[in-house]
Amino acid sequence: MFSRTIFSRASNSPNPSRRSPFLLSLAAQRRLLSDGVRQAIDKAVASAPVVLFMKGTPETPQCGFSRASIQVLGMQGVDPEKFAAYNVLEDQELRQGIKEYSDWPTIPQLYVDKEFVGGCDIIVSMHQNGELAKMLEEKGVLVHETEQAEGGEKKE
What we know:
Largest sheet: 4 strands, mixed
Order of helices and strands: HHHEHEHEEHHH
Oligomer: single chain
Number of strands: 4
Strand order of the largest sheet: 2-1-3-4
Radius of gyration: 19 Å
Number of helices: 8
Shape: globular
Distance between the termini: 62 Å
Structural class: alpha+beta
């Protein structure tokens, strides 16, 4: 009720400067992202079938949520050749930009085939209920069992 009251007041206001700052539309949020940053994120998201924006690197995650996300992807058997990770701590524009790009407030963020999947909570939940395994299998991004058994060598 409270937000509806604010929304109706803000949307009926003849003076746009009186609108609530909390009512930025998705389009307005997207405009905050520069074209250069958007293009760089588009390129990063398209760089591999599975892309994780995280704090730190897969070898040295810098937060527990990034560590958990990497662990889940490892347990799922994501093929390292079909995976890319971007350390948002190295670039402040990327760190803020990815949040605006996905309209998701937290990091890490997982993309599969250029589609936003979610953050750590979503990744863990999907892992626990089997949805993540099914999606990754359907997308063909897992290392095959024969490859894993033979130390990563591909069997043709």
